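Example record

One chain of 222 residues, shown exactly as stored in the release files.
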Amino acid sequence: MSRSIVVAVVVSVAAAACGGPTAPNPPARVEPSPAVDAQTAVAPCDRVVASFEAMTRGLVEIEPEPRRQAALRDRLAAFQTILADECSRWPASLVDCFGAATTEAAWAACEATVPPDVEEAMQARLDAVPPPPEDDAGRIDRARRRAQKIAFEYYPQWAVVPQHTGCPPSLAELAPYADPGETWADPWGTTFATRCEGGMLIVISAGPDRQPGTADDVTSAE
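Predicted structure tokens for this chain:
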């Protein structure tokens, strides 16, 4: 499997766990173990799967957040199943290349030989794997991250414009500085509220009960 798809697995998990393209960067890569089973008695696609396992070994353990750790473990397992199935359709030279790869450099060399149709087939099947179900704890985390993005990324860009003073009259004012597709609604579908406090913009989600001013509100100041 190509290195770009391995990275895509991790990125897709972060996005599913944290809410779309605003998710944080995936965890740092871990050097694969040099010990990959290369016995000739092992079926070629089994060797490819073993190489994938070595390539991704340690990614779950270095993710500190338990919910994303579980999501990553499930996603890697799903992709491993896809890999074992799709491998049987690959050219023999590609199977042999990835099956024998035991280092980062070897994987990079194999990646350069991956046909576009193979890459597209793997990515399509990965994209079709449903994300893990999200509970209120996950939505709260996502609401907090989005509120902080608005307050600490969009708002400062708006505030440096000379004619802009105080806080924006509405979040729509921040649209030119926001990510494409920003909707200004929290994970429960309620529009974020704002207030000015100490020269800063505080962004507030009404939380799971969708009622502002209650104990479950989520703010960018948390």
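Notes: The radius of gyration is 22 Å.
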